[in-house]
Amino acid sequence: MEKLEYKKVYKSLYLPPSKPVIITVPPIKFAVIRGEGDPNGEAFAKATEALYAFSYAVKMSYKSKAVPEGFYDYTVFPLEGEWDLVDKSKGSIDKSNFAYARMIRQPDFLTDALFERFINEAEKKKSNPDISRITYETFDEGLCCQMMHLGSYDDEPESFEKMEAYCLDHGHERLSKRHREIYLSDPRKTEVSKLKTVLRFKIR
Predict the structure, then answer these.
(1) pTM score
(2) Can you tell me the distance from the alpha carbon of 73 to that of 136, in angstroms, rounded to the nearest whole number?
(3) In angstroms, rounded to a whole number, what is the distance separating the alpha carbons of residues 7 and 16?
(4) Is there a contact between 181 and 159 (Cβ–Cβ < 8 Å)?
């Protein structure tokens, strides 16, 4: 069985150039945890841990007695975050004002019924109350602008400025300050200057 490598099969979504491009993103299903506050806090780390616990329960299900129908081997998709502001009248300097949806894309064979099964299995393997907070949702982003951001997360505003300028030059407009980040690098193991993050926002 050939393993599905998301960077090859969905290259346009996960490996954009380091300059802005326009893309239409299809509907995609994710395991999601929503929250508010500073992403550097413990609550945020616990939510991330819960998403990985669930995702690996799905990934390793080929070893179970009840292998999901249509199962195929694949690389677990990267962690993603959709970011917004709790109070829109405030800027993005105050990280406690962040609202986020933390998520990991799931394989096509994961049905709504199977979702409940793997929530239960993940809870048995990992003691993390956030697992019960995971929802299974479809995100339909549609027309977007995206680019690969290289370097520190704190330098992302510079890339967003390039994206917004590109959109204006090509007759598009950013819909809101909400945006998506796809984390292709592990910040615990990667030098800051080499971090790769896909940045994306909806346009019209």
Answers:
(1) 0.94
(2) 20
(3) 10
(4) no
CA 8 to chain centre: 17
User: pLDDT tier at 40 (50, 70, 90 boundaries)?
Assistant: confident
Give Cα 166 to chain centroid, integer Å. 23
1 — pLDDT class (breaks 50, 70, 90) = low
User: Which residues, including other chains, have CB under 8 Å from residue 69's CB and lie 6 or more apart?
Assistant: 109
Measured distance CA(200)–CA(9) in Å, rounded: 19
Q: What is the pLDDT of residue 39?
A: 81
Name residues whose C-beta falls within 8 Å of residue 5's C-beta, 6 or more positions apart in sequence.
74, 75
Identify residue 26 by its one-letter amino acid code.
Answer: P
Are the CB atoms for 178 and 134 separated by under 8 Å? no
